[in-house]
Design a protein that fits this description.
The complex is a heterodimer of chains A (587) and B (278).
Chain A (H helix, E strand, L loop, with lengths): L10 H17 L15 H31 L7 E5 L4 E12 L3 H5 L3 H9 L4 E7 L3 H4 L3 E5 L3 E5 L5 E5 L4 E11 L2 E3 L3 H47 L4 H36 L2 E5 L5 E5 L3 E6 L5 H17 L2 E2 L4 E2 L2 H32 L4 H13 L4 H24 L14 H25 L3 H9 L4 H30 L34 H11 L3 H39 L3
Antiparallel strand pairs in A: 1-2, 1-5, 2-3, 3-4, 6-7, 6-11, 7-8, 7-9, 9-10, 12-13
Chain B lengths: L19 E3 L7 E12 L2 E12 L3 E5 L6 H8 L9 E9 L2 E2 L7 H6 L1 E4 L10 H10 L6 H14 L3 H4 L12 H14 L4 E5 L7 H14 L4 E5 L3 H7 L2 E6 L2 E7 H6 L4 H7 L5
Parallel strand pairs in B: 1-11, 4-9, 4-10, 7-8, 8-9
Antiparallel strand pairs in B: 2-3, 2-5, 5-6, 10-11
Helix pairs in contact in B: 3-4, 3-6, 4-6, 6-7
The chains are: A alpha+beta (587), B alpha/beta (278).
Chain lengths: 587, 278
């Protein structure tokens, strides 16, 4: 039975509708989707939700893509351009970026009519390029803007080298002379590379001797000195014990100083030898610079590289970045101490926050009477997550470093005073501060995980004659563990990326020593450390040349993100294994 | 369609006639002696003057409409209600001559003497072996020979040994619902309790699994004293020796199952068992 009836319709539409009716009779009627009022239909809302999600994804993906693109292209070797300017000046540099700008009136006044007309035609805009001219020791600057109308010609000479130096940053120019053992030799690529490898080996030997061996002796001398002072403080200056310790210590220090002198002599020998192998560079205008070959970290003819050469340089720069110490005020070299500091601090933080957060959550959820007081405590804990992190930094400095650390110094390290041992920022206080910062996340997540454990499980355990603690220990905690792990992962991600409070409680621009080394007690929780997040801030905004720092900001960001993702992925993997274990019980 | 006979509705506070008793005695005396037991959740009284005498080695069923207090009474027997805030009681529950609500009673020790099986199977997320031995392990038993022996005995008693013996160390959560419930029964009897409390053990199971559990109850009869709460009157009729009919927190009639179902002494019991209300 169809709804339409031919006899009720006006004659004009009857024939067409008859066809519709016939179709309906054979194929069924089309169902209208929007039969209800618009406000009752969910679709517009669906579009809004989907749109919001898409926008979020685009923003995040764009952000990550920008960081990845900048981060991963920084170390790729780029060609050197030799630019001849209209006024005859010569510049050699690596073009880094460019763009349109509006030249000032005074600049325009100096230009010829032709150029001025072209700029006017362009609505007053001209384009320019930023060249990394390097040679800071000669020019006093690393970068230079060159406007297109200034350029007379560009060439890419093959004999120009990009030379990364231990000091003074990059040099761009030709290599004109090489002196081995005081004798000038012919400059060939092969010879250069061989000699440079040897020179770097000498350089590293000197560094190893100074850092490890001489550093070790200094450490021992300091220990003897402190032992003597401790004896004096404890027993009084005239006591027999103090006198004995002082006599013993003085003898030992003399021995150590002899060793020190011996090592120093060896260093001097190597250094003297090193000074006899020299290299001479010449910049584009003919000025020459002479230095020890060992100062050259890496050099390559930027315009004469094959693809494998470029890949090799790219990889060697990455390797240096993740395995070496920084040089040139952090804008060159590696970030190994920062990677180490970040990981060590995050792990320490987890060690502090995990038991503390879980125990608190256990008490709040399982033992505390659920009343007004518990609610207040819970709300306060949640609100702690909203306190600005710098406030935690101030608290950490005041309470942990000065109050607690100061007390520890007075009780246990009086001999070192007035130099603070624990009474200043250090990795212990930094991780404790971050633990405090992230503990609300862990508490909230753990509480939710505990709450989600079904009542029937607890009752089943209690009915078996288990005590409350046994029930929590064997039934509730294992079941809640994946959820607790989720909280830990969130806390870790937050803690590893936090910078502001760390600046107050122990992060430094350049840490002289890692928190873990070969001297007893091996783990030095009182030491300052470097951190990737702070490193980003430092190279980007605190270095002498922010232009040189920008690429490092991206590279360090890529590294920090990779590090956090790796740590989180590990934790997620562990959590999923736990989840599987407790869901299906693969024992 | 004939009009249904009107059933007198009653309020909790109404006075109801005293319980009518006609139980079948088991000859071994009573396992649990509940005397004038009242229970309040905060201000609400849930149980009124419950007095029943659970016979040792027999199956006692608690039936009644939803909310009548069957589960509350059952959970009072191993003090599972202690977990509820604001719980108050009066009266006594005597086990072997001592009152389980008396001063100085060790609740954990008490629960070890009472196995309990819940409505929904609640095996722990552990292996079958660990599930069955859980009551012993929390008691500090670590000797493997004892644990092995217990697992076999309990699983055999729960008619699960043949199905489970080859997968003792796989997860209990991989079993079917019926198997899980029998595992819970095995867990309940692992520490060899005197009484087995069952709170609607078949309500989440299909008919075949239900039949298996009912057979199991029949097998366990004599070995253990069983108190079972059930919504299914036919199940109560099939498995129990004595039946208590509860209504609004009171025990209306407590007696021999055959009599309760075929020839109840109280009209309200008759209305319930014939399906006129409930």
């Amino acid at each position: 039975m169809t709804v339409t009836n031919q006899h009720d319709l006006p004659a004009s539409g009857a024939a067409g509708l008859a066809g519709v009716a016939a179709r309906e009779a054979t194929k069924g009627r089309r169902v209208r989707r929007f039969s209800a009022d618009l406000s009752a239909v969910g679709e517009p809302a669906l579009w809004a939700f989907g749109g919001a999600l898409a926008l979020g994804i685009i923003l995040i993906a764009g952000f990550l893509a920008m960081i990845a693109w900048n981060g991963f292209t920084t170390f790729w070797p780029k060609p050197i351009e030799k630019v001849e300017l209209v006024d005859g000046e010569l510049i050699a540099g690596v073009p880094t970026r460019g763009g349109a700008y509006r030249p000032g009136d005074s600049t325009l006044a100096q230009l010829d009519d032709d150029t001025r007309a072209r700029i006017a035609e362009n609505e007053g805009f001209a384009s320019r390029t930023l060249y990394q001219t390097a040679n800071f020791d000669l020019y006093g600057d690393d970068f230079r803007w060159v406007s297109d109308f200034e350029i007379a010609g560009i060439t890419t000479p093959e004999d120009f080298h990009y030379i990364e130096r231990q000091q003074w940053g990059v040099f761009i120019g030709r290599i004109t002379g090489l002196e081995v053992d005081g004798q000038p030799v012919e400059v060939t690529q092969d010879r250069l590379q061989r000699e440079q490898r040897d020179a770097r080996a000498r350089f590293n030997e000197i560094r190893r001797l100074e850092r490890r061996d001489i550093g070790g002796i200094n450490h021992l001398i300091e220990r003897e000195r402190l032992a003597m002072r401790r004896a004096v403080i404890r027993h009084g200056e005239d006591s027999a014990q103090a006198q004995a310790t002082i006599a013993e210590g003085t003898a030992r220090i003399e021995e150590l100083q002899a060793e020190f002198a011996e090592l120093q002599a060896r260093v001097n020998d190597i250094r003297a030898e090193d000074r006899r192998t020299r290299i001479t560079f010449e910049e584009v205008n003919g000025q020459q610079v002479e230095t020890e070959l060992s100062q050259v970290v890496r050099f390559f003819p930027a315009n004469a590289l094959s693809l494998p050469d470029k890949v090799g340089i790219y990889l060697s720069r990455w390797w240096e970045f993740v395995s070496a110490e920084p040089r040139e005020a952090n804008t060159q070299g590696g970030v190994l101490p920062a990677i180490f500091g970040t990981v060590a601090m995050t792990l320490l933080m987890v060690i502090f926050v995990a038991p503390f957060g879980v125990i608190t959550a256990l008490y709040l959820r399982e033992y505390a009477k659920q009343g007004r007081l518990t609610s207040i405590v819970r709300i306060s804990v949640n609100n702690l997550a909203g306190v600005p992190s710098i406030v935690y930094g101030v608290f950490g400095l005041g309470f942990f470093a000065y109050a607690m650390g100061g007390t520890i110094d007075q009780l246990f390290y009086p001999e070192a005073l007035p130099n603070p041992t624990f009474g200043k920022g250090g990795i212990l206080w930094a991780s404790l501060t971050l633990a405090l910062l992230t503990v609300p996340v862990v508490i909230v997540a753990s509480e939710e995980a505990l709450q989600a454990v079904p009542r029937s499980m607890r009752e089943g355990s209690l009915a078996c004659g288990a005590s409350k603690w046994q029930t929590i220990r064997y039934i509730v905690l294992p079941k809640a563990m994946p959820g607790i792990m989720t909280g830990m992962i969130l806390a870790m991600a937050r803690g590893a990326g936090e910078v502001a409070p760390l600046m107050l409680v122990g992060v430094v621009k350049l840490a002289p020593a890692l928190p873990i080394d070969g001297f007893a007690p091996f783990i030095h929780l009182d030491r300052s450390f470097m951190h990737l997040g702070f490193h980003i801030f430092d190279v980007g905004f605190q270095s002498r040349n922010s232009e040189a720092g920008i690429p490092m900001v991206f590279v360090t960001t890529v590294l920090l993100l990779t590090l956090i993702i790796t740590m989180n992925a590990t934790a997620i993997y562990v959590r999923n294994r736990l989840k599987r274990k407790y869901a299906s019980g693969e024992f | 369609m004939a009009t249904a006979p009107t059933v007198a509705t009653a309020q909790r506070s109404d006075r109801i006639d005293p319980t009518v008793y006609h139980i079948k005695k088991g000859g071994q005396g009573s396992a649990l002696d509940i005397r004038d037991f009242n229970l309040w959740y905060g201000e609400n009284q849930a149980l009124y003057d419950n007095t029943i005498d659970v016979q040792k080695g027999m199956v006692t069923a608690l039936i009644g409409p939803s909310g009548c207090g069957k589960s509350t009474l059952l959970r009072s027997l191993n003090r599972m209600n202690d977990l509820v805030d604001g719980l108050r009681i009066s009266g006594q529950v005597m086990v072997d001559g001592f009152d389980i609500y008396g001063p100085g009673v060790d609740v954990i020790a008490l629960r070890k003497r009472m196995g309990m099986v819940f409505q929904k199977p609640n095996p722990f997320a552990m292996s079958i072996y660990d599930n069955v031995t859980y009551p012993l392990r929390v008691d500090g038993v670590t000797k493997k020979s004892i644990l092995d022996e217990t697992v076999e005995r309990a699983l055999r008693s729960a008619a699960l040994w043949d199905e489970a013996k080859d997968r003792l160390h796989t997860s209990a959560l991989g079993m079917s619902g019926g198997q899980q419930q029998r595992l819970c029964i095995a867990r309940g009897i692992a520490s060899d309790p005197e009484v087995l409390l069952m709170d609607e053990p078949c309500s989440a199971l299909d008919p075949i699994a239900t039949a298996k559990i009912e057979n199991l109850i029949a097998d366990l009869r004599g070995q253990y004293t069983i108190v079972i709460v059930t919504h299914s009157m036919s199940q109560a009729a099939r498995v129990s020796d004595n039946t208590a009919f509860m209504y609004l927190g009171r025990i209306v009639e407590y007696g021999d199952t055959g009599t309760v179902f075929t020839n109840p002494k109280v009209p309200r019991t008759n209305d319930y068992v014939t399906g006129r209300f409930g």
